[in-house]
Amino acid sequence: MKRWIWNSNQPLDLNMARWAVIFMIVIGLLHKFIANDIPILAKSESGLSMPVVQDYLYDLGLSNRDPHMASTQYRAVINPVINKSAYNTDIDQILLKPMNEGHLLGTDGYGRDVLSGLIHGTATAVLVSIGAVGLALFIALLIGVISGYYYERPLRLNVWQILLAFIIIAMILPYLITELTSINPNLLIMVLPVLVGMGLWKFLNPVLGRLKMKKWEVHIHRFTDRMIEVREAIPTIFLILGAIALFRDNSIWNVALVIGLIGWGSLSRYIRAEVMKIREKAYIDAAIIQGQSTWRIISRHILPNALDPLLSIITFSFTAAILLEATLSFLGLGMPQEAPTWGSLLAQARTANAWWLAVFPGFCIFLAIASLNTIADYLQRRLDVRIKK
Asked: Is this model's pTM higher than 0.90 or not?
């Protein structure tokens, strides 16, 4: 028989952690099919319909019809497993204990079903962490790769190339600031102009570089190093609290956007270190001698080898994003007030004499953090073994 011993550094078994993460992702993506007050499949006079799918389309802005407000009479329905909405309040069912009146885990201070709230809170944690880490990784790659590849190797640019760089920055920066401070900033719209600017530089820079003009040395790594140092000098929570105050409206995507824009510092330092190490390899020098472009060298040789050692750091970044989202929602910042999240449910345990509002959301946060930390620790140990070999 296997003997179980508590390990404070790794409280969960690796297989258990994997299944826990997979379970949370599935729950997060399919939360409306699991806990909702509208049918999954319904039959009416007009035929079969899927109101839950319509609910997803409405949330994504792809439909103007809110299925929760529909007055359609259905002849037959297939309801979700938990036929309760996480948003509906009921003053007659405030702070019901678990296993009371059909509420398996009780209700919160607004009369909302706690189990439905935990399921929808899982979706919030999953979406915020994926969006935040994705954005942070994009920024960290952009800054870390440039800083590492050109470390102590200045770019030689002529006047026209320097002017092109300033024009691209002048085009992108005001657009990003305007979108960031809008009522509903769009993450995709913010990334798109950056990609367009990178494309312009990729195609126009070689053409301008062929001009026979005096070239100036540009130590780009010094600028990126100062950016990383300034970012790391300011505590993350203070930056996030200040950035959240800039938004006129509260939404899940605003929280993901702020965490992503602020959370790239540590990632960029690790990426810079890996790129600097790979840049000294013989096969990189061989690629340069063969005349391969900088873009090809970075995309084909450096990035694939740099990202593998960073998997554990990226996993820890998901942990940090979930904790920050829970912290902000606990403080009532960033998230819409009616949005059910782990942090907002946990916050109600401060004033209410309801132990279930502390235990169940707290357990969800613990399970998510412990699972991701276990996986990150495994990835780090596997990397250490490869390095020793």
From this structure: no
